Amino acid sequence: MLEKNPKTLKVLYKSFPLSSHKLARPAVEGALAAGKQGRFWEFHDKVFEFLNTRKLNEQSLGQLPIDMGLDMSRYLKDMKSPEIKRVIDRDMREGRNSGVRGTPSLFINGIRVKDRSPAALQKMIDDELKKAKARKKK
Length: 138
Known about the structure:
Low-confidence stretches: none
Radius of gyration: 18 Å
Strand order of the largest sheet: 1-2
Distance between the termini: 28 Å
Order of helices and strands: HHHHHEEH
Number of helices: 6
Mean pLDDT: 93
């Protein structure tokens, strides 16, 4: 979708660690701490790779920043920082207020996406662009 709509689509990624998964919050804290060193997506993708292959555990999560070569003292400090806690808490609050119950959840202009097929996503994007254009004309 980003390739097809480079000037009109902006993606916001929000964290919503599920309380039913004991490593969800530490994984988010780790990803945000890795992000402070410019490596958020690499960390994020590796966590989901571990999750999908059932290799996500405390040991693999703890080893990941080491394997990535992150500055560990900075990583550990950032992981426990009040700033990262605030970001996660804000994302969780916004998610609950938007009706998020699980992950992944997808919204376009605040509207929950039900059909995630490329054609349906593009139709929603096009519809929102038409609405925005009509508002500008008023």
